[in-house]
Amino acid sequence: MGMAKSVAKVLAVMIATAAVPATAEAARCGNDAGGFPAWAEAFKGEAAARGISRSTLDKAFSNIGYARATIRADRGQKSFKLSLDQFMQKRGGPTIIRRGKSLKQQNAALFARIESRYGVPAGPLLAIWGMETGFGGFLGKEHTLSAVATLAYDCRRSDYFTDQFYAALQLVQKGILSPTARGAAHGEIGQTQFLPVNVLKYGADGDGNGHIDLVGSKADALASTANFLRGHGWSAGAGYQPGEPNFAALQGWNAASVYQRAIAIIGAEIDGR
Question: Under the GO molecular function aspect, what terms does this record hold (predicted)?
Fold first, then answer.
C-alpha cells in the first residue's frame, strides 16, 4: 500500500471516529461515600435514556444523598439468624396475635372484601402488617430515594437495587411516591413495607379511591399484600403452614425461613386455625 493511500485511510478512520458521539461514562458502584456523587450524575443520564423524564429526575435527585444508616442496616441484619422462639419474642409475636385478633374484628368488612377478591384470609395479612410496621405505627424515618439509590450504588447488591431504583423513579413519575417520602432503611414503602418493584407489580387500590397509597391507606397496603401473595401462587382455601400449598407464597414474601414460619404461626393464631 502506498504512503498516500495509508495516510488517506488513517484520516478516514479518524473522521469516522470523531463523528461518533462519546458515550457517557456508566454509573459505577462503590463501597464508600466518595464515589456516590459521580455515580448519581451518571445514573441520571442513564435513567433519562430509559424514559424517566427530566422533571422527575430533577425532583428525585434534588434531595438524594449517600445513606449511611442504610449501609449500617444492610450490614447488620442479625435478627434472621435467631431461633424461631427468639425471633417471635424479638418481633413481639404474642402482642401481634392479640392486636391482630382485635383488628380482624374491627375491620371485618375490609378483610372479607380482600379475601373475596384475592383468596387470602386475614391472618397472614395481619401477621405481615404487624411484624413489618406494628400495624402501620412504625414506617421508618429514612429518606426512601436516598436509601434505594445508596443500595443501587453499593457494590454488594448493585444489580438488584438498580432495578429497585428505576422502579422508585417510575413511582415518582406516576405520582405514587413522593420525592420526599421516608420509610424503612432499605427503601421499603408503606404499612407492609413493599420494595419499589413490588409496588409497580402488585400495588392495589384497596379503598377504591382511584389512587394507590401504601402509606396512608391500610386498605391499599393490605390489598396489595394479598395481591402479592396471590401473585406468588396463593390458592384460595388451601393451608399456609409449612408443607401446605400456600406456604410457598409466604416464602416469596421474605427469604428468611424464621420469618416465613413466624407469619404462618401468627396468622394461624389470628385466624383460629
Answer: peptidoglycan lytic transglycosylase activity
CA pair distance 188, 132, nearest whole angstrom? 10
C-alpha angle with apex 120: 118 to 123, nearest 5 degrees?
Answer: 150
Q: What is the pLDDT of residues 191-202, one digit of tens each?
A: 999 999 999 999
Where does the pLDDT of residue 76 fall: very low under 50, low under 70, confident under 90, or very high at 90 and above?
A: confident
Tell me the H-state helices in the chain.
Answer: 3-18, 36-49, 54-61, 68-75, 84-90, 93-106, 108-118, 122-133, 144-153, 158-174, 196-202, 218-231, 247-253, 257-271
CATH assignment, 80-141+190-271: 1.10.530.10
The secondary structure of 118-176 as a DSSP string is: H---HHHHHHHHHHHHTTTT----EEHHHHHHHHHHBGGGHHHHHHHHHHHHHHHHHTS
CA atoms within 13 A on the CB side of 95: 11
> The pTM is what?
0.86
